[in-house]
Write a structure and sequence with these properties.
Layout: H1 2-15, H2 27-35, H3 40-68, H4 72-80, H5 84-95, H6 100-116, H7 119-131, H8 140-152, H9 156-168, H10 175-187
Length: 188
C-alpha cells in the first residue's frame, strides 16, 4: 500500500512541473520570505487556529481516558458538551450505522468536530463541500479552505486532497500550489 502511495505521489508531483519550476534555495528566497508583508486575514486565521488547537489539546486527556475505559456513555456526554475528539469519534461510529437517522446525526457531529479543529473532520467535511457529495451543496472554495485547515495540522490525506484539487479543479487550478502541497505530503 505504501509503495503505491509513494508512486502515485511521485507521478502527481511530476505532473505539476519539474525542478525548473521550483524556486532555487538560497539567501534570496529566505530574504523574500522575511520581507513578505503580513496579511491581516492570514494572521487572524492563524490566531483562530491556535485557539482551536489549544482547546483541542485541553480536551484530549479526558477523551482519551473515556476511550481507554471503553465508556461510550462518557464519550457521548463529552460529545454533547462539545469535546471535538468525542464528536469525531461519535460521528465515525454513527456513519457506520445502518440507521439513516444515526447517519444524519453523524453529519452534524462531523461538522461540529470540524469547527472545533479536528483535522480528520475538517478533511471529511472539506471533501464533501468541495465536491458536493452526500447532500452537501457544491462549494469548492469553502471545501478547499476546510481541507487546507486540516492539511496545515499535518493531515497527509488532507494535504493530498488539497494538492489534487489545485492540480485538477477547473476553476482553482494552480500547479505551483499543487506542487507545494504534494511536497509537504511527501515530507510528512
Amino acid at each position: 500500500m505504501r509503495p503505491a502511495l509513494l508512486v502515485a505521489l511521485a507521478l502527481s508531483l511530476a505532473a505539476c512541473g519539474g525542478q525548473g519550476d521550483a524556486p532555487k534555495p538560497g539567501v534570496e528566497a529566505a530574504e523574500a520570505e522575511k520581507l513578505k508583508p503580513i496579511d491581516p486575514k492570514e494572521a487572524a486565521e492563524a490566531a483562530a487556529a491556535k485557539v482551536r488547537a489549544d482547546k483541542l489539546a485541553e480536551q484530549k486527556p479526558e477523551f482519551d481516558a473515556a476511550l481507554a475505559a471503553k465508556d461510550e456513555a462518557k464519550i457521548d456526554d463529552l460529545a454533547d458538551a462539545g469535546n471535538g475528539w468525542a464528536l469525531y469519534h461519535r460521528a465515525t461510529n454513527r456513519l457506520s450505522s445502518q440507521d439513516f437517522s444515526q447517519q444524519q446525526a453523524a453529519f452534524q457531529d462531523m461538522e461540529a468536530a470540524a469547527e472545533k479543529g479536528v483535522a480528520d473532520a475538517e478533511m471529511w467535511v472539506g471533501v464533501k463541500m468541495a465536491y458536493g457529495q452526500d447532500g452537501y451543496p457544491l462549494k469548492p472554495s469553502s471545501g478547499l479552505k476546510m481541507m487546507e485547515r486540516g492539511a496545515r495540522q499535518g493531515n497527509v490525506q488532507a494535504m493530498l486532497a488539497v494538492a489534487l484539487m489545485y492540480e485538477q479543479d477547473t476553476f482553482m487550478a494552480d500547479k505551483k500550489k499543487a506542487r507545494t502541497w504534494y511536497e509537504k505530503a511527501a515530507a510528512a
